[in-house]
Specification:
The structure is a homodimer. With about 475 residues, chain A is an all-alpha fold. Chain A contains 17 helices and no strands. Chains A and B meet through helix 2, helix 3, helix 5, helix 7 and helix 8 of A and helix 2, helix 3, helix 5, helix 7 and helix 8 of B. Chains A, B: Its main location: membrane. Chains A, B: It is found in: Membrane.
């Protein structure tokens, strides 16, 4: 606990000095500093773009501050140069779309409100020296109240909220400031030009140095949401039927889906910002961003189902072993195949290729549903089984069947996206998944001819499934990603 | 389609003039104007506080603009008076908590950054005329980058995001502006005092005229979320078992729960803002706002279950009539009693009284669960029932049982809240619900002695339930809200 004796001497070796300072700290403070350092490191590691973004903001501000130092620029902008600094600070957003949206909003709102403000001043000046403040006061009141009210419109709130704010701000400032109109025109043009300079610096830095595109974020989040759902479903069978005594000590894959439950606001924001972005990389200007919201809603639907399913993993497993053994194979198969379908959809989105291999997994999961139905039919014939006892297991089976329907809907919406966005039809050269490894003990039973007389009650869109008794056997004319 | 001939003459009767203008518009534009007017009206009707808020913003801005007109004030503030206008526009938020949070953030950040900026300027001036811009540039870069990075910390993002923004802004402006230090001190003090004036006006208007408290919003949203869930559950039985052919043409009560699914971000924001608010009305300064987040999470859990349940209302009802009749009474009873329990919890939150009548409904729903279990036990004895056919119905029953557990958890968390926030123990004089009317055909069957040998598998916290065969019969020593 000794206090550092040499605060000056260590100048040449800042690192060792910092270390000695750290050692001198009392235990609790030291732990806090280390904890803080760790959380900083984690934030940076989780998303290195955060570090780049911080450096970009620093750079843009440094560049704009040189406007003040380089004399020729200073003279042409005058005092208003400070508005360029202000613009950079408030406009620079994490994503390109955010920066563009704010630039556009700020520029247009300043222009509009400036013109209106000048008009208001002129009108007010007609009412004489004494009347002017009151007329202006009424104008400010009416415009501020009306504009504030428009911010409650959901569409305006989502896209033009900042613009309305700047509109009120500029109108009040222009109409209220005691300047004469001629002075105001000069001032307004100065302010506009500095805003343009500030916005231009922001846009250039934002786009040219490691750009973060809201559209790409939305695209990737759609894929990662599906991966989270898929990880759960692929692990579910092993987790539920082995009562968690398997070799899986790391169960973090069972938590990922929770992120999907509350994904709506982030996705809505990203979709709104993506509309402002020009075409970039693999995304055209008119990329169907709205379709991602549809995919997102369906993914959340599936996440809700998984949330209910998850309740049954946690609860004490009181379902009779006999019944669980009956449904184990087909349930594990359904869950694993749904997981694989979602994984292949996620990889199709990532690589922007047509999700051709998904259909196989969806069909496999449907076949497994039929196997499950056969198993359930067999159950009803035994008299020793009580419905009450097997109910939790039956519910799990029932929800898994619902999940198959959800996954099929997700698959359809991703196919729609692949049509709208003209995905390539090329398969990725290296399969991004390793089906053989991820396939947890889900060997489909070859049922003894039973499947010939199955009554199909679950959504059936394709025929010719009954013939294919082993769902893992590749079908003729269909590419399989195994 | 005639054009209004008299644009000046109508001055005396603006209403009739507006009408004639409206009539002159071509059909499509007219429809759009009417549509717009309707949506404005709806926005205002949905929440009249929106109108008050807009008027309050107008008022605050008008008041602050008089700083410019009243000469003595103008002289003492000088040019910096414009910052008061700017402060009002950006600080005035819908809720008192929002306004206070922004005021505090802006004030403290300006003070801190101003002091730091002066220090930076002094240090930079030591490095001579030529070195100064570069030293300042490095300062701005480092501080902006570091501060921007802190905005990624979730806790800072939630509470101090605006403060960090203003910190970067003020630091850049102070350190960059080419003034001498003596001038800057004057300027900074002017700016601070104008910010104080602006913030003071905002806070006074925000609190004194129809205040909107974030805490009260959070409190009410907890209650309304529960009411939405309750409306669904009370209506579910009739909707599911009567195949939607009942007299209920208005099914909007089946949609309310969807609002709960995505309630998390709003609740988080409100809870953060509520911490800034002083004690108001029925809420003390240290009101347990965090508990509302816990209640919110449990309500969402229940909403997820209802979302799954809702899927079974929509799907074709292929469950054999015989089975449906067996579970109809107890399922309707479970659902209705859960709904009543939630309604009474909601009303307890609204009136801030201890939710004493909830327990009766929770216990009733548990009794109904036992009745359901008896019915299900009876099912297994019949050989003509196929498990596969009755599976959808059995799943509905199973999810309803889960909902009972959810409702019990919600009830516990509301009881916790009533402890933490010292709710009154007085019952409301007028019961806010009308149980007899909302109780849709849920007459509990008095089972013939079967309940004596039921094996209880569902969470049971109280005993003495078996004796109470009619769950609607009030228990001794417990107040019933019927």
């Amino acid at each position: 606990m000794e206090i550092d004796q040499s605060p000056v001497q260590g100048k040449a070796r800042p690192l060792s000095r910092a270390r000695s300072l750290l050692e001198a700290l009392p235990g609790k403070a030291k732990a806090e500093v280390i904890g803080f350092a760790k959380s900083v490191r984690k934030l940076g590691q989780d998303d290195p773009r955060r570090i780049t973004h911080s450096l970009k903001v620093g750079l843009a501000l440094t560049v704009v501050s040189f406007i003040y130092y380089l004399r020729p620029l200073y003279k042409s902008f005058g005092e208003a140069g400070i508005w360029a600094v202000l613009t950079v600070v408030v406009i620079f957003e994490f994503t390109v779309g955010g920066t563009l949206s704010k630039s556009f909003n700020r520029g247009l709102a300043t222009l509009l409100a400036g013109a209106l403000g000048l008009g208001a001043q002129y009108l007010a000046s007609l009412s004489g020296e004494k009347g002017q403040p009151f007329v202006l006061g009424i104008f400010v009141f009416l415009l501020a109240a009306a504009s504030t009210f428009t911010r409650f419109f959901p569409r305006i709130k989502a896209r033009y909220d900042y613009g309305v704010l700047i509109f009120i701000l500029t109108f009040s400032m222009v109409s209220v400031s005691g300047y004469r109109v001629e002075e105001l025109v000069v001032l307004a043009s100065q302010r506009l030009s500095t805003i343009l300079v500030g916005a231009a610096i922001c846009i250039v830095v934002s786009i040219c140095i490691c750009p973060v595109w809201a559209g790409e974020n939305l695209h990737n989040s759609a894929a990662s949401n599906m991966e989270n759902l898929a990880s759960y479903l692929e692990g579910f069978g092993g987790e539920y039927f082995q009562s968690g005594e398997g070799s899986n000590s790391d169960r973090s894959f069972l938590q990922g889906y929770k992120k999907v439950l509350n994904s709506k606001p982030t996705e809505d924001t990203m979709a709104n910002l993506a509309r402002w972005e020009p075409g970039h990389g693999r995304f055209g200007f008119r990329h169907p961003w709205k379709q991602y919201l549809k995919i997102g809603a369906l993914s959340r639907q599936c996440a809700y189902q998984i949330e209910i399913l998850n309740g049954y993993i946690k609860s004490d497993n009181q379902v009779p072993l006999e019944f669980r053994c009956k449904i184990q194979e087909s349930c594990t198969q359904i869950s694993a195949e749904c997981g694989k379908a979602l994984k292949s959809l996620a990889s199709a989105i990532k690589t922007m290729t047509i999700p051709s291999s998904t259909n196989v997994h969806v069909e496999n999961s449907k076949t497994a549903v039929k196997d499950l139905q056969i198993s359930l039919k067999a159950v009803s014939l035994e008299h020793d089984q009580e419905l009450l006892a097997i109910l939790p297991g039956a519910t799990v089976a029932s929800i898994l069947v619902e999940i198959v329907i959800s996954v099929e809907k997700i698959s359809e919406s991703v196919h729609e996206l692949s049509n709208l966005a003209h995905f390539k039809s090329v398969e990725p050269t290296v399969s991004p998944e390793k089906p053989q490894l991820l396939h947890r003990g889900a060997i489909n039973p070859v049922l003894d001819g039973d499947s010939d007389h199955v009554v199909i009650t679950i959504h059936e869109t394709s025929t010719g499934l009954q013939e294919n008794e082993n769902p893992k056997a590749p079908k003729i004319g269909q590419r399989v990603e195994l």
